[in-house]
Amino acid sequence: MNRRHLLAAGAAMLAAPAQAQPHHQHLRPAAPSPHRYHLLQGGTPHHLTPQQEAQRVTDSPAPAGPQGRWVPRADMPIPRSEMAWATAWEGRMHVVGGYGEGQVNRAYHSIYVPAEDRWYDAAPLPRGANHVAVVAHQGRVYALGGFIEQNRRCDDHAYAYEVAEDRWRAIAPLPRPRGAAAAVELGGRIHLIGGATDPAPERASIGWHEAYDPAADKWELLRPLPGARDHVGCVAHNGLIHVVGGRFNTFQYNTGLHHVYLPQRDTWEERAALPTPRSGHGMVVHRGRFWVMGGEGGIIERGQAREAKVFGQMESYDPAADTWQHHAPMPTPRHAVAAVAIGDWIYVAGGGAVLGGAVQSAVHEAFTAV
Known about the structure:
With 370 residues, the protein is mostly beta strands. The protein has a single domain (28-368), classed as Neuraminidase (6 Propeller), CATH 2.120.10.80. It has one helix and 37 strands. The chain has one helix at 50-53, and strands at residues 28-30, 37-39, 56-57, 69-72, 80-81, 87-89, 92-100, 103-113, 118-121, 133-137, 140-144, 147-149, 152-154, 158-162, 167-170, 182-186, 189-193, 196-197, 204-205, 209-213, 218-221, 233-237, 240-244, 247-248, 250-254, 258-262, 267-270, 282-286, 289-293, 296-301, 304-311, 314-318, 323-327, 338-342, 345-349, 359-361, 364-368. Strand 30 (296-301) and strand 31 form a beta hairpin. The chain is globular and about 50 Å long.
C-alpha cells in the first residue's frame, strides 16, 4: 500500500467527547487524499461524469423531520469503498479493509480522530479483504469474515485488534465463511448476522446468526434472520438488535425490511420498514434514534448499469414510536460507506460514488441534528 505519512493540513475541528483521549502515539499520521475519486480499474484518479452524477437520488417518502446540517471533514487518505461499514472506540472511527488503489483485497486500517480532523494509519489486517464486518468492544476492534475477490469468495477469518497495542491477533474462525455480514455487540457477545456466502458464482444471501463469546473464544448458533439478506444496516439498542434494509442476493432486489431480535426469546419480530429500500447504507444510533444514510440500487447486466441509483437520503427511526422521518440528504451520495456516531456528530467517510464498485471515494462529511 502506498502510504503517505504526512500531517494533514490544519482544518476546523469538530468537538469529540471530553473523555475520548486515548494515546495514539503509535499510529502514523496520514494526509487526506489529493484525489476525491479513483477508478477501481487501474486505481487512477477520476472525475465523475454527468451521467455518473445523474445516478444520485435524495427524495424520501418519509415525513419531514428536523433538517440538521452536513459539513465537510478531512478526506480519507485513500479513496476506498466496500469496507463494510466502520466502528468507533473511545471517540475514534476505525475503517478496515475494502477496495482501493485498483485492488479489492486491501488490508487498510485507517483511524479518524474527530478532535483533530485527522486520519492515522494503524496496523493493517493480517490479510486483505472487502466487506469485512467490524465492531468494537472492551478495547478491541473485531474484524469478521469478508470477501477476497470482488464481492465474492468469502472466508472464515476472524481477528481482534488490541487498540492500546496497535496489534491484530487471530481468534476462533467463523463457523461458516461469509462476507457482507453485520456485526454488533450485545450483552458482551459479538453477533454476526446475515451476509452472503459461496459458491462464488452464485453468491447467495444468507440469514445466518452466530454469536461470539470473547471470554470463551467460541461461537454459538442462534435464530437466523428472517428474510436472508446482505449489505444491511444493523444496530443494538436497549437490549435488542435491529436489522434494516439490505438486498436479496443483488442490489436489483433491495428491501426495506426491518427486523428486531429479542435475545431473551431468541426470536425475531418485524418493525416499520425503511422508507427508502436500499443496501450498502450506513446506520448508526444517535440521540436515541437510528440514522440511515447512503446506499445503492439498480441493475448491472454484462457490465452495463441501468436504473442505477446512489442514494443520499438521510432517514431516521424512532424506536419508541416505530416511525420514520427524513432529514437533510448527504451532500455527496455514496454507498458502502464508513459511518459512525461520535459525540454530537455522525461521520460518513469514503464509499462508492456510482452503482457497483467501479469508483471509490475519499469524500468525508459529517451530520449533526442539532
